[in-house]
Amino acid sequence: MHFHDCFVQGCDASILIDGPSAEKTAAPNRALRGFEVIDDAKAQLEAACPGLVSCADILTLAARDTVVLTGRLTYSVPTGRRDGRISPASEAANLPGFRDSIETQKQQFADKGLTVQDLVTLVASKEKPGLACQIIFAFHWNCFMLSFRNLCRRAHHWDSAVPALQIQALQLHHSWRRCRPDH
C-alpha cells in the first residue's frame, strides 16, 4: 500500500481517501488490503492526541514496522508529512505493473528519480509473499531467471516459492549486474 501511495503523488496518504474516483478505486489498487488497519491506527491516535499525527506518517510508519517485523531490516523514517487532499484514480495509471516490459518499468522508475536496483527491490518486495519468483519470471529475463533457480524451488509451481522478502536487494543487484547485456 505504501509503495502504491508514494509512487503516484509522493507519500501523502492520498491512497486512503475514499470516493468513487479516488486512487483507492483505480485498477492497480483494487487488490490492496489493510485499509482498516490504518483507519484504526488513525482513530486511536486521534483519540490520544488529536490533529497531531498525519495519515501519511501512519502509513509510512506502518510500512517501516512491517519490514522491521520480518527481522530483515530496521531503519528510522522522518515524520512530519502532510496528508494529500486530492486523490484522482487516473494518477494511479502510471503505477508499474509486473506485466509491463522491463524498459517501461525502468522508465517509470527513472521518471521518479529511482534506479534499476530500486525497481528490482521494490517491485519484488511489494508483492505478497510467494509471488516474487512469479514476478521475476514474468520479466522474461532468461539470465536473471537462472540466477533464481535456487530460490524458487520449482519454477512452475508458484505456491512453493520463497517469500518475497527472502530475496535480498544485494542478491538481486548482483544478478542484475551479471545478466545485463552491457556488463
Walk me through the structure.
It contains eight helices and no strands. The protein is globular, with a radius of gyration of 18 Å. Helix 5 packs across helix 8 (169-179). With 183 residues, the chain is mostly helical. It has one domain. Residues 127-183 have low confidence and may be disordered.
What is the overall shape?
globular
Radius of gyration: 18 Å
User: How far is it from the N-terminal to the C-terminal residue, by CA?
Assistant: 34 Å
Number of domains: 1
Contiguous low-pLDDT stretches (5 residues minimum) are 127-183
Helix content: 40-55%
Strand content: under 5%
Computed structural class:
mainly alpha
How many helices?
8
Q: Please count the beta strands (DSSP E, at least 2 residues each).
A: 0
Mean pLDDT: 74
- Tell me the major beta sheet: none
**H/E element sequence:** HHHHHHHH
In terms of quaternary structure, what is this? single chain
Keywords: Calcium, Disulfide bond, Heme, Iron, Metal-binding, Oxidoreductase, Peroxidase
Pfam families: peroxidase
Family: Belongs to the peroxidase family.
Cofactor: heme b; Ca(2+)
